[in-house]
Amino acid sequence: MSDTSIKFKEHSPWPIWLWLFLLFLAASLALAFWAALGNRWGAISGLVQILGLLFASQRSALAVEVSDTELRVGTARIERKFIGKVQALSADQMRQWRGPLSDPACFMALRFWIPTGVKIEIADPKDPTPYWLVSSKKAQPLLAALSNNNQ
User: Fold this and answer.
1) Count of Cβ atoms closer than 10 Å to residue 88 Cβ
2) N or C of the chain: less Cβ packing under 10 Å?
3) What's the Rg (C-alpha) of the chain?
4) From CA 57, how far away is CA 15, in angstroms rounded?
5) What percent helix, strand, coil does the chain show, rounded to 5?
6) Which distant-in-sequence residues (6+ apart) come within 8 Å of 145 by Cβ?
7) How many Å apart are CA 56 and CA 151, to the nearest integer?
8) Angle CA 105–108–109, to nearest 5
9) What is the C-alpha to C-alpha distance for residues 26 and 57, in angstroms, rounded to an integer?
10) CB 101 within 8 A of CB 133
11) CB 62 within 8 A of CB 138
């Protein structure tokens, strides 16, 4: 996808509060290793945990891109001609769609730290997936970018 064709782009990394909480847990565990096994093992466990957190944060960040021809959510992609109705969801609506209203056949790209999102109906008769449910802090701009999908 070339940069000139991108109509919408969102990258949703971990929020600061999540980083602080996980760093606190890592420090607690490193302190336990230090107390039981000494300086070397305390430092090694702290380093391993920090590297693990950096890796996990990179792997779990959600990237959403809309171009003239396709929608990408993480590693998933769909041509825009197969996108049906798109609906921006409030936090309460999102909670309902990921819980009691959810269809087991739907595609979900959710991040627990993002309360809002969009529901994207799939208009491909060959695709068994009825809709995509995607977390987004910018649900309205994403809706606008997907609204004129007949290219």
Assistant:
1) 19
2) C
3) 20
4) 10
5) 45, 30, 30
6) 7, 8, 66
7) 37
8) 160
9) 14
10) no
11) no
Q: 143: Cβ–Cβ under 8 A, 6 or more apart, which residues?
A: 86, 87, 88, 118
Contact indicator for 106, 84 with CB cutoff of 8 Å:
no
75 is written with which tokens? 């590693």
Q: Which residues fall within 8 angstroms of residue 56, CB to CB, at 6 or more apart?
A: none
Give the angle subtended at the CA of 102 by the CAs of 87 and 75, to the nearest 5°. Answer: 70
| Local confidence pLDDT in tens for the 151 residues of the chain | 445 588 999 999 999 999 999 999 999 999 999 999 999 999 999 999 999 999 999 999 999 999 999 999 999 999 999 999 999 999 999 999 999 999 999 999 999 999 999 999 999 999 999 999 999 999 999 999 998 654 4
